[in-house]
Design brief:
two-stranded antiparallel ribbon; alpha/beta
């Protein structure tokens, strides 16, 4: 898997992150997208290696002052959508975790249309809007509200979690 494969490269990757901090960046955003195996997010086999990478990155960044305040440290953020229970378990390693509320909530890849950043997924009659995904029919569409309820049930720290929305410009 991707994360396990970079174990030997972690010191170099962390060194590059430190270089960015020395150039004046506020922190590092770790946005894990598609894995080598073609899956999205983090695979079960990658969770320990990824946690170790983030811990090593956190330990390294803590040796440097933040650009905006010498009493603070550079920040680590992540944009997440998959395996939310995992992100809640490692939330203490991050300064902020943003729920990606675009594209994964519906769209052309599901074979139907849905709001890109829907706040709620219930219809006026109280039922859920549904669609198809991955060969399954009548899957309730996700919404910011539904995803946040799920993350809250896992024990998310409200002070660390945010909502990322698409800010595309109309043509």
């Amino acid at each position: 898997s991707f994360i396990s494969a970079i174990k030997w490269a972690r010191p170099k990757l962390i060194s590059e992150c430190i270089w960015a901090i020395k150039q004046g960046y506020d922190g590092i955003d770790v946005d894990l997208e598609q894995t080598e195996s073609g899956g999205w997010g983090i695979s079960t086999g990658d969770t320990l290696s990824y946690r170790l990478f983030i811990q090593e990155l956190r330990d390294s960044l803590n040796k440097y002052p933040a650009r905006w305040d010498a009493m603070k440290k550079p920040i680590i953020t992540a944009a997440v959508f998959w395996r939310l229970d995992y992100w809640v378990r490692i939330q203490h390693l991050f300064d902020m975790i943003n729920l990606m509320t675009y594209d994964g909530f519906g769209g052309s890849w599901e074979g139907n249309t849905w709001h890109n950043n829907a706040i709620y997924s219930r219809k006026a009659d109280g039922s859920y809007a549904t669609g198809s995904c991955c060969g399954n029919e009548n899957i309730p569409h996700q919404s910011v509200d539904e995803i946040w309820k799920k993350v809250s049930r896992y024990g998310a720290d409200r002070k660390k979690w945010g909502v990322g929305i698409e800010a595309g410009l109309a043509k």
